[in-house]
Every structure is written in structure tokens, then in C-alpha cells.
Amino acid sequence: MSLRVSGGRLLAGAASRPMPSRTTANLVRTSRARSSRFSTSTPPPPPPETPRRPNPLVTSAAAGFAAGLIFVLARRWTTEAKSADVKCDGAPGLIVVDTHGRPWMPVDAEEQDDPRNPMRIRMANWVKSLQDHIVLTLEAIEASHSPLPSEHSPSSSAPPKFLRDAWLRPEGGEGSSCVLAGGRVFEKAGVNVSIVHGKLPPAGQKQMRAEHASLPQFDVPIPFFATGLSIVLHPRNPHVPTVHLNYRYFEVEHPEKPGEVLAWWFGGGSDLTPSYLVEDDARLFHSTLKDACDKHNTAYWPAFKAWCDKYFYIPHRKESRGVGGLFFDDLTTTSQIHAPKDGSNPPSKEEIFDFVKTISSAFLPAYVPIVLKNKDKGWTDEERRWQLIRRGRYVEFNLVYDRGTKFGLATPGARIESILMSLPEIARWEYMSEMGAEGTEEGKLMEVLRKPREWA
């Protein structure tokens, strides 16, 4: 008999803010800040017998995207490989410890956020918390699924778990790669957070300016920082679509004035790649993301949806990778989409960060119902064959066109395992395949891939 977990239970947490890690290594410990450059005043410490829960500096020092475009402005960010504590040299008083002799677990990630901290720390905290929340949700889905004897998925008394791989980059940076292989529901799943830091040379600055107009140009290398979360899920069942998510933050400092941020921006998005078109699923995914966008700016969704359709296009196949979603980059206060209208002011950095938190939190409510609806459907060998052919298209896009993957593979010291995490374990290429012909179920998908539609 199959064990089931209701969608309501799984989505109860997904619709709210993400929970932090419950593992010892990721446990957030806090103390009252002794001093801070990010606070105008220091409140008196609470009595030892009734400690309050302050807003802590995050212990998570990670962020990254499978695409590989992750950098970090590292000179002022220090960590110890053998410690869960993290501190920023710019705020020596904000050290993550527990002065009351017992660990403290925040209720959700929002309570860990402290506006006094630099945005690089706040974003790293957010994506680390979201990573853990998503991993726990996916593990719950795996545990809820008992494969039938006819299914081509492994059967085990122990539910599959993610491998949590914490790593350090010799050239500067660190991260956490959570990977599940051979799961009951997900054939391969990767949830990556990483940090890479160093100096961006003039040639690299020139290359990035093509896509990021806010980046200044110097004749000397400049310190840079980036943090982000990247997710790619390849389900086993051909009727459950592949999904991708990536949200990131990037900033550069003045080469001669440490601590002076010259430019910053947010970027990211999420898109759905089905093997078989289910229109209700496409509508759910798009409408959930649209609702999240509309809470902040009604101009976001139409612009970012169109950007997604344009970006995830495979020119040599003359088709899209999937049914899309949203994509944006170089989102800052001076972005064209924020041009003043009717006397309105552009959003602040804080408001843009709030949007990133909202849209990234919408991922599970947009995707989990689709998984629960389709994961128990049976499939044929021909449907599996078509799924593997579509995965081949996914590989083609990622290796040939994806900017982040190409940049990551060209970066000295890049962690190749994390960059290529987005690729499926199994894909297929056929010479002049007859699958996808007009009038077939496969052909219905091809119609949409050749001419993107509005789903929300």
C-alpha cells in the first residue's frame, strides 16, 4: 500500500517563509551584539534568566548557482572551515555565538534577517535557509512515495536522502551542494548554495558590462561578491516536469576604497520543462509566479515572462527549452523597468530584496502540487524514451547557450561538480527521431515549444 502525504501538509510550510537548517552544522546561534557599524544604537542586553531572541547575523556562508555565475567579494568575509560560526570583519561585534549556554532556533528565516547587516550577508542567509527548507520538503516527498513493482525506480526501506556536501574553493569561497541521485520520485535533484570571491580583472569587467550596464569599468581588478541559490530537479516519471530555479545577488567594491559598494544587482528566475504538456500544470506554475510578482510591481511579470521565453530558447533547434516561467537580471534601483512613472519613486534596495524573497518563496507552491498530482502515474517505454530525448535538449541548452554555465567552466578554480549539477544522469540523442510528430501527445508539446503561449 502506498504511503501518501497530502499536498496541504507539504505546502503549509512552502507558502510561508523557509525554515532554517535543523542540523547541528547549520544551527544558528545568536548573541546580543557588543557593537555594530550597522546599528545606530546598541540596546541593553537582556537579563540572563530571560533571554530575548535578537535578530542574528546569519551562520550560512553560502550561495551559488548551478549555472556557475557565482562570485564573492571576499576580503571582508571570513570563515573557519571547522566552525559553524561566521563573522564579517566589517562588523566585529556581530559574531554568531550563544552567551546563554544553549542553542537558539529561530522560527523562520525572516527572524534571522537583520537590516543592520550588509546585503551580501542577508542574501546569503536567505538562500541558505531556503535551500534547507526546499531540501527537507523534497525529502518528505521522497519518503511519501512507495514505488509499485512495475515502476522503474529503486525500492528501499529507507527513504532516499540528499547528500549534503560542504566545500571550500581554494581561490576564495565556499558552498553547500545538496544532491540526490536515484530517488523514488527524483532521478536526480540538485540544490546548490555557493560563494566565490576574488578580483574581477578589466577583461572580465568588460565582458560582464555587456549584460550589466550598472557595472563600472576600471583599468585594475576590482573586488566582487555574489551569492545565490540554484536548483534543478529531474523527476523519474515522464509525466512530472523538470524544473529549474536560480536567484542571486552580485556586488562590486571600489578597488581603492574597501567597503564602498560601487554597483549591485539581483537576478534569477524559475522555469518549467515538461516532457508532456499538461495545460493546467503550466497555468498553475505561471499564475503562482505572476501573483508573487504582482505583489511588488505589476510590470514585473509581463517583462520577466517574455525575458524567460527569449533566454531559454535553443536557436539551433528553433524551439524553447520548456514552457517558461520568469527570468530577470541586473535588477537594481536604476533598472529600466523602475523608470519613474507618474511621479513615483523607484524601489529601494530593501524593496527589491523583498521581491526576491517573495518570488523565491513561491517556488514550492508553484511546483509541489504538480509533482504530487503526477508522480504516481504509470508510463510506457516510449514515454520514457521521449523524456530522455527532451533531456538531451536540456543538456544542449545548458552547455551551448547558458551564460552562467559557460562562465563557470571558464573560471579558474571553479567547482565543476557544482556547475554541472544541472545536467541529468541519463539523456538521449536519436538521429532523425520520428517522435514529436504533429497529432501526437509529443507533438502537442512541440507546438508550444515552437510558439510560446501566455499561461497566466
TrEMBL record:
It comes from the Eukaryota. One of its GO terms (biological process) is protoporphyrinogen IX biosynthetic process. It is an enzyme of class 1 (oxidoreductase). Pathway: Porphyrin-containing compound metabolism; protoporphyrin-IX biosynthesis; protoporphyrinogen-IX from coproporphyrinogen-III (O2 route): step 1/1. One of its GO terms (molecular function) is coproporphyrinogen oxidase activity. Pfam families: Coprogen_oxidas (PF01218). Residues 1-57 are annotated as: Disordered. InterPro entries: Coprogen_oxidase_aer, Coprogen_oxidase_aer_sf, Coprogen_oxidase_CS. Keywords: Heme biosynthesis, Oxidoreductase, Porphyrin biosynthesis. The keyword Iron does not apply. Its EC number is 1.3.3.3. One of its GO terms (cellular component) is cytoplasm. PANTHER family: COPROPORPHYRINOGEN III OXIDASE, MITOCHONDRIAL, OXYGEN-DEPENDENT COPROPORPHYRINOGEN-III OXIDASE, MITOCHONDRIAL. Homodimer. Belongs to the aerobic coproporphyrinogen-III oxidase family. This is coproporphyrinogen oxidase. It comes from Saitozyma podzolica.
